[in-house]
Design brief:
five-stranded mixed beta sheet; mainly beta; six-stranded antiparallel beta sheet; single chain; 43% strand; elongated; Immunoglobulin-like
């Protein structure tokens, strides 16, 4: 059986220094800004605004300007506890969610009182799109809770506004805002995830069976955004920017484990299985793996990793075209009538070729796809304004499927020889039958 191999490895050890002045990669952070006023609506300058990530204790502080405004840029995605403090006013605290490449707006209204008194605002500020870039954010809850066939995050693209995905997915299947399928700019944590040859993504690209050869598991993704009209910082391609942000380690060790399985006893027989006298399609599909993250040095260095394996195998019947015995006899008769002898090589090879008076034969094609993929991510905080992170991706896949039967299988015309003038034909025929190699049938006639 012919075998194709799909091997995909993406190695990235990238150091990103994130400060309020900018970053050296595409944006994987978010911003918080807002205005602080008193109970009468007058703006308050000089208010201390502090944001603390509750998962890693990352802290950023700013002071409101003369207009009472503040801005906390380039914050790693997290739920932040934001506190405002000013002498003579009660402190106010609220939670603010920061999403990748998004602006979270949090305004505060302070009441006169002792600074030691704190007012806590319950609930997280909703994410509101303030840019003109047509951002669509898919958060952790949707990624983990929406059931997806194959656990491929690309399936979620189909429910994102402006995205068209070919039915059933497959190779180069996503078009965004009417652009070409190859115009999409795929990224993982701001790092290019583009296949430069085909124009598809590297991780989560499908193999010959139409299933992903490698995966970034759903459990390892914090969120992703689709920016239909990307800003100049992205470059590379003219289409939409799809940026997947991986989860990171925190001060609290955390992880997941999972095992999914699909067997034939849960299925009903399809038309072709019934016709061949079978009960169900012989299939076994397994996906398993896990994630784990935690601290290396509390509040300073964190790790996160994942592994996912996949084992798919199934037997599917399909029809191939084979010569009829009557057609072979007619071909021999035409050659004899032309005063020529049948090529002995072709006759010997023909002994190994299946025949059927119906002209077709049902073959049980065996297909399988094995996958192993893992990644390790390290985050280190130099200080509250500078972060360093590195990541390693590896994916391996071995997929095998029967070759297409289209023009590769001999039909009646293979045995039709010209009646006038010298003529030689060479037909390459192939049948995906166990222990049957490629066959070349050579025949010739002449004056």
């Amino acid at each position: 059986m012919p075998r194709r191999w799909a091997l995909s490895a993406l190695l990235g050890v990238i150091f990103i220094f994130g400060a309020s002045t900018g970053a050296f990669a595409q944006k994987t952070t978010g911003d918080i800004n807002g205005t602080v006023t008193d109970s009468t609506g007058a703006v308050l300058p000089g208010v201390a605004v502090t944001a603390v990530c509750q998962a890693t204790n990352l802290t950023r502080s700013v002071t409101t300007d003369a207009q009472g405004s503040y801005s906390l840029p380039e914050l790693p995605i997290c739920n932040y506890k934001v506190t405002t403090e000013l002498q003579g006013f009660k402190a106010v605290t609220r939670e603010v969610q920061v999403a990748v490449n998004a602006l979270s707006k949090a305004d505060f209204k302070l009441e006169v009182g002792a600074q030691s008194e704190t007012i806590t605002v319950e609930g997280v500020s909703p994410l509101i799109e303030f840019s003109d870039k047509l951002n669509n954010n898919v958060d952790t809850e949707r990624i983990t809770e929406v059931p997806l066939s194959g656990r491929d995050f690309n399936s979620l693209l189909a429910v994102t506004p402006g995205v068209t995905r070919e039915p059933g997915g497959g190779f180069i299947a996503v078009s965004i805002a009417g652009m070409r399928h190859t115009s999409n700019n795929y990224m993982i944590d701001g790092i290019s995830n583009n296949d430069r040859y085909y124009g598809d993504s590297v991780m989560n690209q499908v193999g010959i069976l139409g299933v992903p050869a490698t995966l970034v598991p759903m459990d390892a993704i914090a969120e992703f955004t689709v920016q239909q009209t990307p800003s100049a910082e992205f470059g590379v391609k003219g289409g939409a920017a799809i940026n997947v942000v991986m989860k990171s380690g925190t001060n609290q060790p955390h992880g997941t484990g999972y095992y999914f399985r699909h067997d034939k006893w849960t299925d009903s027989p399809n038309f072709f299985v019934k016709r061949s006298g079978g009960d169900t399609t012989d299939i076994k599909n397994q996906q398993y793996g896990g994630t784990f993250g935690g601290p290396i040095v509390k509040d300073k260095t964190f790790f996160f990793g994942y592994y996912e394996g996949g084992r798919v195998s199934f037997v599917a019947p399909y029809d191939v075209f084979v010569p009829r015995p009557s057609e072979i006899s007619a071909a021999r008769a035409r050659i004899a009538a032309a005063g020529m002898a049948v090529n002995p090589i072709g006759e010997n090879l023909l002994k190994y070729y299946p025949t059927s008076e119906s002209g077709k034969q049902t073959i049980n094609g065996v297909s399988f796809a094995d996958m192993d993929t893992f990644s390790v991510k390290i985050d280190h905080r130099l200080n509250n304004n500078n972060l360093v992170n590195g990541r390693f991706f590896y994916g391996y896949s071995n997929q095998s499927a029967p070759a297409g039967n289209g023009d590769y299988f001999c039909t009646a015309h293979c045995f039709h020889l010209c009646k006038d003038g010298p003529h030689m034909t060479l037909y390459r025929t192939f049948a995906d039958i166990e222990n049957l190699p490629d066959l070349f049938i050579v025949s010739s006639i002449g004056d």
